[in-house]
Every structure is written in C-alpha cells, then in structure tokens.
Amino acid sequence: MSDDEYKIETTDAGASETIPMEAGQIKKGGFIMIKGRPCKVLNIAVSKTGKHGHAKCNFTATDIFTGKKLEDMVPSSHGTTVPIVNKSEWEIIDISEDGELTLMDEAGNQKVDCNLPTIPEGFGDEIRDAWADGENTIMVTVQAAVGEEAVIGFKKENP
C-alpha cells in the first residue's frame, strides 16, 4: 500500500456548528435552532406538566439572518440544538458595484466573501452612503453561524 491511497481530503478539526442543550435551559435572548435555521429567542412560554407528559416550552424566535419569525414547541426536559454564533468587527476597504465587500480586521487579514446586507430594506444603502462619504472609517459587524455569515451592523469611526 502506498501513501497515495490514504490522502486526507479535509483538515477540519471536527468542531460542530451547534451544541446540544436541554430545552428548559434556553433563555430569552439566547439562540436556538428551529427548522434548521439559527434563531434568537424572543419569548418562551412554559406550559405546566399535564396528565400524560412533560412541561413544554413554546419558543418564539426570529431567524438571525432573514428576520423571519419562527415558532417551536419542545418538552422542557428534551434536548434541542443551539447554534454557535460568532460576531467580529471588520473595516470596509472597498465596496464593488454589485455590493461585494472587501473587509480587513485588526490583524490585517482580508475577507472578500461578504455582501452588503439586503435586510432590513435600505440598510445596505446606508452603509454604501457612509463609505462613499469618505471622511470616516466604516466598521461593520459580521455575524456568523452554521456556515452562513452576514453584516448585521456598522458604525463610523473618525480617523
């Protein structure tokens, strides 16, 4: 057998994009996966234990990327999944005609796989206008979870 037969295709450390958690442990303002989408919990209504079962948690949440409202009901003692959500700050270096961003972090690393946000309406235009003004440094907050990422905020910083 030669070494060519045992090639490693990926260098993934095996880290999961979600973690398991008991439904009763999730708090308002936290995150939960509903219908395969990462969501931020807006409200939790807990029903009492009935004659035949467990107390149930009614989750009302919004998708962190689309803003769409989703609901789910899970017995409080059962497991569910919680997405690992990361936020990072990046400086805008360039914005292309089609809205593709060129970003740089504090360490000088560049990122070119983000676009101007389309939700909420006009938010991307606000960022483009602030950047076109040219007087300030524009910092954007990029939120990432379950293989997706999007710009969720921006601020102007004076040089």
Automatic annotation (TrEMBL):
Citing just one GO molecular function, the answer is: translation initiation factor activity
PTM annotation: eIF-5A seems to be the only eukaryotic protein to have a hypusine residue which is a post-translational modification of a lysine by the addition of a butylamino group.
GO cellular-component terms in the record? chloroplast
Predominantly, its location class is plastid
Q: Which residues form the Translation initiation factor 5A C-terminal domain?
A: 84-155
Gene3D superfamilies named among the record's database cross-references:
2.30.30.30, Nucleic acid-binding proteins
Q: Where are the transmembrane segments?
A: none
Record carries keyword Ion transport: no
What the entry lists under Pfam families is as follows: eIF-5a, IF5A-like_N
Q: Which UniProt keywords apply?
A: Chloroplast, Hypusine, Initiation factor, Plastid, Protein biosynthesis
- Set out the biological process GO terms recorded for this chain's protein: positive regulation of translational elongation; positive regulation of translational termination
Tell me the compartments it is located in: Plastid, Chloroplast
Record family assignment: Belongs to the eIF-5A family.
Q: What does this protein do?
A: Translation factor that promotes translation elongation and termination, particularly upon ribosome stalling at specific amino acid sequence contexts. Binds between the exit (E) and peptidyl (P) site of the ribosome and promotes rescue of stalled ribosome: specifically required for efficient translation of polyproline-containing peptides as well as other motifs that stall the ribosome. Acts as ribosome quality control (RQC) cofactor by joining the RQC complex to facilitate peptidyl transfer during CAT tailing step.
Name of the protein this chain belongs to? Eukaryotic translation initiation factor 5A
